Amino acid sequence: MINKNEIHFRKANTSDISVIWEIIQQSIERRRIDGSTQWQNGYPNLQTVESDVSKGFGHVLTVDNKIAVYVALIFNDEPAYSSIEGAWLTTGEFVVVHRVAVSENFAGQGLAKKLFDYIEEYTKSQNVLSIKVDTNFDNLAMLKILESKGYSYCGEVVLAGGARKAFEKVLM
């Protein structure tokens, strides 16, 4: 079991990019093995990670100073979210969660769930009270996490040419 004191959430830096890319490649393969179409078309790629980090979007969850989970957090900017078949819970500022990827070395330890706790703390610290996220219809692990963390299903958005389930959580 992982001790909470060993876990830290921080912005990714350029020296993290190679490890992050390795973790994303592991996640791409995991999605393929699970029979998912998500992340099977060349996205995300190394340039995506480099862009995330250079723009300050990339964040990592570390365990004993080793990168265990990667996520991109983007404030108020996801063009695909302006058109939803359904309705968002809020219309104000929000944080978008993209590209959650867990290292094979840390898979199955509940760290993706723990990541969402850190995302909520970070979002509140930025005085933003809404988190929006989308995922593939066949990403059962992420759907289960979102349900367990109290995210509300809001409808469908089209992203990267495909329909995605869209969720929002309002932080009070």
TrEMBL record:
<dbReference type="InterPro" id="IPR000182">
    <property type="entry name" value="GNAT_dom"/>
</dbReference>
<dbReference type="Pfam" id="PF00583">
    <property type="entry name" value="Acetyltransf_1"/>
</dbReference>
<dbReference type="GO" id="GO:0016747">
    <property type="term" value="F:acyltransferase activity, transferring groups other than amino-acyl groups"/>
</dbReference>
<feature type="domain" description="N-acetyltransferase">
    <location>
        <begin position="7"/>
        <end position="172"/>
    </location>
</feature>
<protein>
    <submittedName>
        <fullName>GNAT family N-acetyltransferase</fullName>
    </submittedName>
</protein>
<dbReference type="InterPro" id="IPR016181">
    <property type="entry name" value="Acyl_CoA_acyltransferase"/>
</dbReference>
